[in-house]
Each structure stands twice: as C-alpha cells, then as structure tokens.
C-alpha cells in the first residue's frame, strides 16, 4: 500500500472516530413502532376533537368560536405529534446515513483489496485495530466486548475494511440501558419494549418513569408476550394501543394515576388478568369487551368519571373485590347479582339512590360500603347477606332500615350515622345481630333504642353524637357501649317486673270485683224471698 493510500485509509479511520453511536437494532425497531403509533394516535385525537366540537355546537356555542377552538386543538395535536416523531425520525435518519457510510466503506475496501474480494489485508487489519483502540479508549470497561465484536468483523462478516459499527454501538448502549434515575422518553420506552420482548421479560415496572410528554404507548407494546406483571402507573398516559390485547399471559396490570379517557375494545382479550388497578384516571365508560375478563379477581375503578357500570360486569364471576368509589354512579346494573364470588364492594362517594334487589344474591359478600350517596332505603334482600361483616350507609338519606337485616347475623360493624333528619328509628330486631361489635348512629333523629338492644352482648363501640337520644339518656351513652346494653337490659327487666305486678294486681282486683258482684246478687235474692 502506497503512502498516499495509507493516508486515505487513515482519513477514513478518522471519520469513523467522529461518527456518533450507531442505533441498535432495538432502537430502529422502536423508532418504527413510534412513528406508526404516532400516526394512528394523531388520527384518533383529531377524530375526538371533531366529535367534541359537534357536541358543543348542540349546546348553542357560536359556530365561529367553535371553529377557532377546533383548529387550535387540531394544531396542538399536530404539534405534539411532530415533537413525538422527532426523536424517532432522527434515529431513522441516523441509520440511513450509516448505511450510506457502509456503502462507501465497501467501495473503499474493494479498492484496497481487489484480489481477495475485500477479504481484508494487513492494512485493513490495521484499520480494524484502530477501531478497537478507539472504542477501548471511549469505554475501557467494554474493551473485551469491543474486541470480540471487531474480531468477528475482521473474519469477514462484512468484508473489506471492516467498518461495521452496529455491534459496537449496541454494546455501548447495553452498558447504560439500566438507569432507574432518568425518566424515559417515547423512543426509550419503545426501545425498552423491544429489548424486553427479546429477553422474554416477565415483569416490567415503569411506575412514574415516563416523561410528562409521553401520553400514549407505541403499538410495539403488544410484543411483550411473556410479561405477566406490568406497572405503568403514575405517569400521564392518555391512551393505550389496541395491541395491548396481545398480552395473553398478563395477570397483573397497574394503570393507576394516569389520564386514561377510555380503554381499547381489545382490552377484553386480556383473558389471564387477575388484578387490575385503574383508579385515578378519567374513564367515563368501560368497553363492552370488559366482561370477557373472566379471570379478574381484584378490580379498582375508584376516582374516575364513571356514571354507569356496564351490564357485562355480571360476567365477572370470579371477581372478589370491586372498588368503585369516588365516581358519578347513579345506579348499579342488576347483573351485579351474578358476581357471586364478590367479597368486598366499595361504592362510597357516588350518586346512588338505591341498590338493586339482586344485591342479595352476593352470598359471599363481607364488606359493603355506601358512604356519601343519596340512598333512601336498603333492599329487603339485604338480609340474605349472611356473611356480611361490615355495612356502611353513613351520609345518605336513609329513612328506614329493614327488619330483616337481623338475618345478616355475621354483621360486626354497622354505620348508619349522618342520615340526619331522615332516620328516626333502628329496627326492632337489631338485638338479633349477636356478633355486632361497632354501631354508629350519630347525627340522626333516633330518640329511643329498641328493647332488643339489650341482647348486643359483644358491642364494644357505640357512637350517638348529635343524636337526641332519650332512652337511654346521654349520661349513660357516655359511659360506653356495654353500659348502654346494661341500661337497656335493666330497664326492660324493671318494666317487665312492673308489668307483672300490675297484671297481678289487676287479676286480684278482677277476682274481688267478681266476688263482690256475687254477694250483692245473693242479698237481692234474699229480699225477694221475704
């Protein structure tokens, strides 16, 4: 090789040193997924804007003002999509430039080593050694790995001068991929998905790890075929890709504290799902396919914007725990009675006015909380809940508690407080709740406790604040639950003793009056005979 040729090879080596890291295969796949997802997401968002504008038009908003708002929203969506595409487009363009460089290196190789088809002579080997030396200086801890990659190149996998940068670049990235302190952008998320899919990862935790600009996930999410537990909570995700339905082995999914407005129809294809946390989102409805999640055991829908629960909820026959508090629910579907495995049902802070009679079919139910609703009465089937241990109907408009609540004999905690002027009496049979330990009747209009109260031998907490109790008097209530029970017991015993004494006196008075009448009649008869 002539000195001038050596100078050219040296120049090519210098150019190589100045190249940025080449995207790894996973990065390229991630970039492609991001670009594909960005297009679909942009179209979906634009369609939502048009639908929202049509709804506002029906509300009487001026058409021109709506046009301005619609165009502003559409422009904002396009701008966000452009920013989200930017990094992915950069990766794709970077790879395109590397391919151009590859072609140039191949041409140079054919010129330097024309006899062996670019097999790589002594000077080519020197160039490869330069590559190894450069990478070793950049990352000393990767020197062995870089040397291995370079030797593979030198054996002729690409031929010529051996300027294959892909393997080296991938190795550089692999060393810094596991960094829990930095938040991930969209392209990093997509790259992580690609690498996790290839590794067969079973658990993936991205809780609070996404930058705020990541509002949706790439379609490549569906590649996580082996994942069983996925945590995407505490981010700002607004939409899930339809490909999420491909995660057939997923058993636990945590999406709480995001900004989800709806779920894709394919969500119902997560047939292995057992635990699902959707609380603290902006969900207004659930897809009809939701009923296909027949393995679901724990479901948290709290702190959303749900006004109704779908009828398909009744298909969730393995559901044991349903949390739907802090929504806008006005009623429960009658099909709730088909959720026969349900043990815990929390419906606090809604707009419920009544419970369906079908609630009595939930024979395994142990906890039922209805705090802060608008319920006026409990269904008569409440007595069929023989395993019920806790019932909370405080802060409602309850006017009456049905007598057959006494059949819920496992009840340990009962809260009927703060129904204010509506609730005026406890059921006469309340004393049959022999397992009852806690009872709160505060802020009601109850004045007299029923006689059967004396049978609540296990009662240890009794609250009656701001309730105008007359029997027993407030002084007794302040002494504690068992003092109230004893008071009622003594009062009833005293009344019964008094009644017996009264009955006894009445009996003898009747006898005396009877004999008195007989003597009088006899006196009258004697007068007539004379």
3D architecture notes:
By secondary structure, this protein is of the alpha/beta class. Helix content is 40%, strand content 7%. It is built from 9 helices and 12 strands. The protein has a 12-stranded parallel beta sheet with strand order 1-2-3-4-5-6-7-8-9-10-11-12. Helix 2 packs antiparallel against helix 3 (63-112), helix 2 crosses helix 7 (186-199) and helix 4 (122-138) runs antiparallel to helix 5. The longest helix is centred in the first third of the chain and has 50 residues, at 63-112. It is elongated and about 155 Å long. It starts with a helix and ends with a helix. It comes from Panicum virgatum (Blackwell switchgrass). Belongs to the SHOC2 family. Keywords: Leucine-rich repeat, Repeat.
Distinctive features:
alpha/beta; 9 helices; 40% helix; elongated
What order do the helices and strands come in, and which of them pair?
Blueprint: H1 3-18, H2 25-58, H3 63-112, H4 122-138, H5 143-157, H6 166-176, H7 186-199, E1 203-205, E2 229-231, E3 252-254, E4 275-277, E5 298-300, E6 321-323, E7 344-346, E8 367-369, E9 390-392, E10 413-415, E11 438-440, E12 461-463, H8 474-477, H9 481-529
Parallel strand pairs: 1-2, 2-3, 3-4, 4-5, 5-6, 6-7, 7-8, 8-9, 9-10, 10-11, 11-12
Helix pairs in contact: 1-4, 2-3, 2-7, 4-5
Number of strands: 12
The low-pLDDT segments are: 117-132, 138-178
Morphology call = elongated
Counting helices, strands and paired strands, the structural category is: alpha/beta
Proportion of residues in extended strands: 5-15%
Query: What's the alpha carbon Rg, rounded to whole Å?
Result: 39 Å
N- and C-termini, Cα separation: 173 Å
Instruction: Give me the number of helical elements.
Output: 9
Strands across the major sheet, in which order?
1-2-3-4-5-6-7-8-9-10-11-12
> Largest sheet at a glance?
12 strands, parallel
- Topology as H/E string? HHHHHHHEEEEEEEEEEEEHH
Portion of residues within helices = 25-40%
What is the arithmetic mean of pLDDT?
82
């Amino acid at each position: 090789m002539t000195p001038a040729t050596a100078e050219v090879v040296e120049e090519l080596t210098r150019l190589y040193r100045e190249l940025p890291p080449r995207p790894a295969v996973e990065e390229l796949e991630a970039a492609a997924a991001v670009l594909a997802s960005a297009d679909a997401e942009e179209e979906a968002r634009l369609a939502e804007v048009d639908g929202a504008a049509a709804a506002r038009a029906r509300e009487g908003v001026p058409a021109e003002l709506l046009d301005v708002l619609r165009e502003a929203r559409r422009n904002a969506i396009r701008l966000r999509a452009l920013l989200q595409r930017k990094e992915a487009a950069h990766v794709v363009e970077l790879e395109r430039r590397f391919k151009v460089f590859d072609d140039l290196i191949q041409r140079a190789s054919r010129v330097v080593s024309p006899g062996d088809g670019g097999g790589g002579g002594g000077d080519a080997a020197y160039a490869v050694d330069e590559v190894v030396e450069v990478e070793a200086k950049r990352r000393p801890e990767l020197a062995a790995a870089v040397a291995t990659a370079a030797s593979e190149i030198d054996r002729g996998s690409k031929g010529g001068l051996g300027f294959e940068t892909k393997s080296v670049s991938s190795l550089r990235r692999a060393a810094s991929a596991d960094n829990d302190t930095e938040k991930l952008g969209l392209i990093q998320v997509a790259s992580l998905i690609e690498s996790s899919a290839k590794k067969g990862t079973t658990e993936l935790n991205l809780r609070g790890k996404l930058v705020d600009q990541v509002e949706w996930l790439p379609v490549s999410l569906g590649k996580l075929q082996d994942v069983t537990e996925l945590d995407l909570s505490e981010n700002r995700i607004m939409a899930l890709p339809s490909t999420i339905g491909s995660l057939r082995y997923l058993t636990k999914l945590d999406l709480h504290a995001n900004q989800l407005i709806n779920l894709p129809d394919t969500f119902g294809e997560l047939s292995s799902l057992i635990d699902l946390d959707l609380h603290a989102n902006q969900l207004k409805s659930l897809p009809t396919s939701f009923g296909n999640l027949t393995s679901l055991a724990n479901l948290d829908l709290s702190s959303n914007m749900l006004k109704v629960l779908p009828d398909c909820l009744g298909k969730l026959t393995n559901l044991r725990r349903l949390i739907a508090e802090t929504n806008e629910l006005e009623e429960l579907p009658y099909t709730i009675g088909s959720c026969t495995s349900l043990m815990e049902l929390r419906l606090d802070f809604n707009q419920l006015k009544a419970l369906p009679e079908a609630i009595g079919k939930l024979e395994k139910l142990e906890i039922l909380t209805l705090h802060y609703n608008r319920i006026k009465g409990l269904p008569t089937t409440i007595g069929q809940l023989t395993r019920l241990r806790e019932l909370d109907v405080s802060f409602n408009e309850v006017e009456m508690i049905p007598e057959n609540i006494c059949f819920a004999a496992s009840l340990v905690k009962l809260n009927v407080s703060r129904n204010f002027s509506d609730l005026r009496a406890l059921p006469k049979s309340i004393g049959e709740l022999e397992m009852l330990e806690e009872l709160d009747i505060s802020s009601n209009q109850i004045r007299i406790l029923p006689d059967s109260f004396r049978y609540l031998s296990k009662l240890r907490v009794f609250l009656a604040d701001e309730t105008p109790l007359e029997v027993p008097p407030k002084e007794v209530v302040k002494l504690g639950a068992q003092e109230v029970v004893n008071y009622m017991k003594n009062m009833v015993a005293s009344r019964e003793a008094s009644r017996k004494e009264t009955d006894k006196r009445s009996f003898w008075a009747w006898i005396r009056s009877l004999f008195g009448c007989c003597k009088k009649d006899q006196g009258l008869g004697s007068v007539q005979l004379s």
